Amino acid sequence: MSEELAANRPAAPPVCPRHPDRVSYVRCQRCGRPVCADCQRPAPVGVQCPDCVAEAAAAIPARRTTLGGQLRQGPPVVTLTFIGLCAASYVIGLVNPAWVDQLAFNPLLGQSQPYRFLTAAFLHASTIHIASNLIALWFIGPYLEQALGRARFTTLYLLAAVGGQVGVVLLAGPTGSWNTWVVGASGAVFGLFGAIFFVMRRLGGNATGIIGVIVLNVLIGFVVPGIAWQAHAGGLVVGALLGAAYAFAPPARRRLVAVAVPVALVVVMAVAVKLVYASVNIVFL
């Protein structure tokens, strides 16, 4: 008797898997599950559920630039982040001068406080100083960020920033000034100059103008007092090496190059700085 009643009982109305309290007789054209009005996504034929739409989107290969960077819509997030960090750090330094003392680079403190090799790149000495660096970053950054992708661009910027301070140490020499304070994103910006030259060459662009900009800025570093030309040189070399590696890496080896070359540069810079410190036999305070 109970089996007969169960067989005659009407079937439960179909409900949306995401909203079990909503009855829906409309079904997804891909998976056939019920889909309520809030979950329906227009399709060429009928509607689809959010899960099928997401699955289809994930199956579509990401669009890439010639150098393998993922094409993205919207603002250059990484470039804006670096600009924001520099601006915020500058404001903090105005309010609290000790902020600069704690993060600025000094060759005497470089070995005992290696974080200064990076943090100094987010500090600036004046409004003109930060404005010139951030304007250059804004003009070059978005182009490289789009061409290389966010990960490689981030690596390029940070390693060039460190390379600027490495240049200060390497070019100081045994008789150089080891008690000089260095701040600014110039090393990172010069790294972008070096990288964009090779990227433009690889993409068939005219890189002559970039050479002029680099030469002009290098000369300014020698002529205008108070500019750490060594940081410019260090950042330029690191950026050029990374830019060339990124630009001319075979498509099948781009991921390997994106990891191996930065790691190799970090090792080389660390060893070179260690050797310089050992050779001058500096007594750290």
Structure description:
The protein is mostly helical and 285 residues long. It folds into two domains: 15-59, no CATH class; 77-280, Rhomboid-like fold, CATH 1.20.1540. The mean pLDDT is 86. 34% of the residues are buried. The termini are far apart. 61% of the residues lie in helices and 1% in strands. A two-stranded antiparallel sheet has the order 1-2. α7 (127-148) runs parallel beside α9, α8 (150-172) packs across α9 and α9 runs parallel beside α11 (229-248). It is built from twelve helices and two strands, in the order αββααααααααααα.
Highlighted features:
285 residues, mainly alpha, Rhomboid-like fold, 2 domains, two-stranded antiparallel sheet, elongated, protease, membrane, serine-type endopeptidase activity
